Amino acid sequence: MAELQLQSIKKRFGSMQTIHGVDLQIQPGEFIVFVGPSGCGKSTLLRMIAGLETVTEGSIHIARRDVTSLAPSQRRVSMVFQSYALYPHMTAEQNLSFGMRMRKVPKDTIREKVARASEILQLEPYLKRKPGELSGGQCQRVAIGRALVQDPDVFLFDEPLSNLDAELRVKMRAEIADLHQRLGATMIYVTHDQTEAMTLANRIVVLRDGRVEQVGEPMALYSNPVNQFVAGFIGSPKMNFLPVLRHGSDEDEISVGVNGEGGRVELIISCHTIPASDDELTLGIRPEHITIDDSSALRARVRSVEQLGSISYLYCTLAGQSLCVQSHGQLLPRPGYEVGLTFAPDKLYLFDSDEQTISTLKPTADH
Length: 367
Ligand SMILES: Nc1ncnc2c1ncn2[C@@H]1O[C@H](COP(=O)(O)OP(=O)(O)OP(=O)(O)O)[C@@H](O)[C@H]1O
Ligand SMILES: [Mg+2]
What we know:
The chain is of the alpha+beta class.
């Protein structure tokens, strides 16, 4: 367990700058998840922490020790890759023990550590098999085991589950959460999968184009996104965004008009900032905060329906704009039908033309 500090980290590949000054303070034992679109710099950041990539500017401290220019082997970190990176000609057991054998760790210690990792990750039945004789999930467990036997201060995971099928991902996700509970180790985990991010993280770091957009607990990001990018990235299906016309405002409220099929509805939103009156505004509302209500004046046309069992998603059109609505109902309108919709009045977000949140932040406990 160790704390980790990134200070003004920058990275240039030739003339191209990929990371533009990242500051991050990670507490001992924290589970931090990096999310962001492809190419935003998640792996680069992780590889710099591991020492696999040089840092152009800035510093990295692990357990208060400056590791910025130390070799990977001196940092006390272990990284688990998406590709597993196991040695194909070695058995699972040999893969687990390889690093320790190279470092001439006493045989008894190796045996003990391999046994403990195998027990934690339930690898005992597979120890004599080579990677080619193991499933993807089993290979990934060996890769995690190989990190575990090094007793690192910090575990780094780069999309470790993305090669697994949906069912196995859910299982392995639970296993990683369990591992974190048991070890209490500091972990940094990169993923595209926002469900993984929401369920595993103590705190999520949302990255875009090599910059941190927001850092916070999963529910804080869900309830209080600082801008439209974070609002759209956290939550699945994503938040709906609608261009709106401003009707009027006072010092802490803005009234806007939302166009529906055949008419406009006025909504009033509490705001902490009131932009200039000609600023174009965007309304945000999550699918789970819209209800079908046939008495509502806001009308939408149903385009398609996805029934998932306990819930369904209705994909609608609202004056040319797409809108996703979550429904718990069993009797659903069919495609082509018109429905009335109500937006939960305390779940409305408003963004200015710079995509910054101007609506008053919602209490995080109430979502
Ligand atoms: N060795 C390299 N040389 C030049 N550019 C690189 C190198 N490694 C990464 N990049 C660039 O840096 C940017 C960030 O890449 P990175 O792999 O960190 O993204 P990522 O967020 O992990 O994306 P993904 O989700 O697709 O894995 C990309 O534009 C990438 O092309
Ligand atoms: Mg990557």
